[in-house]
Amino acid sequence: MIDLHYWPTPNGHKITMMLEETGLDYTIRPVDIGKGEQFAPEFLKIAPNNRMPAIVDHDPAVGNAPITVFESGAILLYLAGKTGRFGGDSLRERTEVNQWLMWQMGGLGPMLGQNHHFNIYAPEKIPYAMDRYVKETNRLYGVLDRRLTDRAFVAGAYSVADMAAYPWIVPHEAQGQTLADFPNVKRWFETIAKRPATITAYEKGKAINDSRTPMTDEQKKMLFGQTAATR
């Protein structure tokens, strides 16, 4: 049994997609980030960066003690190692998967996250910041589109690299992007959207929190006003 500490954000969706693909037994433990539940002492023991998702694997492959993992990319790699699936079968394949997973973790996610912040959530509209991140989002979509020119998925076979990137493309319209401008991304996106595991993962997220609900000022303060002193 795996406990998944989760909220339906792009990083959260990555993990439910992987868990549904692998068929692992898991229980969702909601962490309402708008209420500040990510700062609870018991959660910080699992995820010291006070971010979800995080997992606790109560049935690890080695030893009897539970294994805790935080950071979505690390969780995906852990689950790929645990199941022997979606992480690449050879050194060459694993390298392809890993470098595109790191591309998502180091580039696609952070840059699109800033796009969301300045264009959707920021109380002050700063044209330079908004333009900066919309353009960088467009550049990254272009990188992904070129990568998908001659392959179905980013590392060849469907992998955790695809599961990591897909949730960040879901809100493409809010990011100021048009999928028709990126035909290879559009094909890839529509293929993943139809996978039964993807459909189930998003249904579970919607059941916990409908993301269409507007964020309150108090929730924005909780999410975007943190310092080292935040508890």
Automatic annotation (TrEMBL):
Which InterPro entries does the protein's record reference? Glutathione-S-Trfase_C-like, Glutathione-S-Trfase_C_sf, Glutathione_S-Trfase, Glutathione_S-Trfase_N, GST_C, Thioredoxin-like_sf
- All copies of the GST C-terminal domain together span 90-215
Pfam families the record matches: GST_C, GST_N
Residues forming the GST N-terminal domain are 1-87
PROSITE patterns reported in the protein's UniProt record: GST_CTER, GST_NTER
Q: Which protein family is named in the record? A: Belongs to the GST superfamily.
Q: What is the name of the protein in this document? A: Thiol:disulfide oxidoreductase
From what organism does this protein derive? Sphingomonas ginsenosidivorax
